[in-house]
Design brief:
alpha+beta; Nucleoside Triphosphate Pyrophosphohydrolase; two-stranded antiparallel ribbon; about 20% helix; globular; NUDIX_hydrolase_dom; EC 3.6.1.13
Length: about 350
């Protein structure tokens, strides 16, 4: 009976009112509740302003959206939060690439709304960032960034809405991490990335799709790289340059990390460019856009990404190109999409969403 009352209450409220009245963590919970009951809710597609602003989608549909640069199919999974639980990898005990230990943050103290006078986060910015490279912000105090907006060429908006700023510094919208400063991240606030998930069907010698013995569903394969910094397998991807369109980031990062385009001759580059441009201009399945539970996150800097699936359905596009690790990748190969394969950060979640939308084995 209580569940019925909750559903009726949610149906009687406009989601716009919910967004206005409730704090971000409660908005995520309301979205999750609506999803579980199969009800529509409102989402804002900040990354494709030219295509659509805000629309209401039922949970089970995929709707095509065309931007000026490339086509996207918005999957219902894209609107879901990365996790209803507190971020975990963002609180890893030891900060990656360093000997720095985070201040321990229990689950019940992650949310900024929890009063915790004893909280004493460690302050750390990696030396590579402190040297003020072109891709990094200066220290707070030496410049005045405009948060929650497009600040010159740098997009400082959050994919999940406005974030708080205290004492001139932005606060991680998913809560405490045990470390302030920027760590390995260049930007104060959101650091925007793009993750191209390139897939194909696993086929036999005759070109027939291979089905999994247990689930009886066709098996997808995706291009995976082994990161040099941590040794974990991941989706090839990288940071969006200031003023760069996400569509270009997706294609550029895949070319550099999975095809080693930076080391190719002009003629080889031309051949590969023609092949992958065809794939990246095909309708892409945008499976996620939002906060990433990343071990590099801090209280003042965090990762956000757009994950888009480009599928070589016929197997005559990227499937025929020789993979070669480049840029930040140690190794690169086609890997079966399977729940048992551990990936970096939130990448396993992205693959799960792709498999479900493609009706493939997971």
């Amino acid at each position: 009976m209580l569940h019925v009352l909750v559903v009726l209450l949610l149906m009687s409220l406009s989601i716009g009112m919910v967004h206005f009245l409730l704090r971000p963590n409660w908005i995520r919970r309301i979205r999750l509740a609506l999803t579980l009951f199969g009800l529509p809710y409102t989402v804002c597609t900040y990354g494709v302003r030219s295509a659509i602003s805000c629309s209401s989608y039922p949970f089970s549909t995929i709707r095509p959206i065309t931007s000026s640069c490339y086509n996207l199919y918005m999957t219902s999974a894209w609107t879901m939060p990365s996790s209803a639980a507190p971020h975990v990898k963002s609180r890893c005990p030891q900060y990656p690439g360093s000997n720095i230990k985070r201040f321990p943050v229990p689950d019940d103290k992650v949310d900024w709304s929890q009063n915790w006078p004893q909280y004493k986060p460690v302050s750390y910015t990696d030396p590579s960032v402190a040297k003020k490279p072109a891709w990094a912000d200066p220290d707070i105090g030496s410049f005045s960034p405009h948060f929650n907006t497009v600040d010159g060429a740098v997009d400082r908006t959050g994919f999940e809405g406005s974030y708080k700023v205290e004492e001139g510094k932005p606060l991680n919208p998913h809560g405490r991490t045990g470390l302030n400063g920027r760590g390995l991240l260049g930007r104060w606030g959101p650091n925007h990335a793009a993750d191209p998930i390139v897939t194909r069907w696993k086929v036999d010698a005759k070109g027939v799709k291979i089905q999994h013995l247990v689930t009886k569903r066709p098996i997808l394969q995706f291009v995976s790289i082994k990161r040099k910094d941590c040794g974990e397998w991941a989706i090839p991807g990288g940071m969006v340059d200031p003023g760069e369109q996400v569509s270009l980031t997706l294609q550029r990062e895949f070319s550099e990390e999975a095809l080693n385009s930076l080391s190719l001759s002009p003629s080889e580059k031309a051949k590969i460019h023609e092949r992958i441009t065809k794939l990246f201009k095909s309708p892409g399945l945008q499976v996620y856009k939002g906060y990433v539970d990343d071990p590099r996150n801090t209280d003042n800097a965090w990762m956000e990404t757009v994950a888009v699936n480009f599928h070589d359905d016929s197997g005559d596009s990227v499937s025929e190109l020789p993979l070669q690790a480049g840029d930040d990748a140690g190794q690169v190969q086609w890997v079966d999409v399977d729940s048992s394969f551990t990936l970096y950060a939130s990448h396993s979640r992205f693959l799960e969403l792709v498999a479900k939308e493609r009706k493939a084995h997971w």
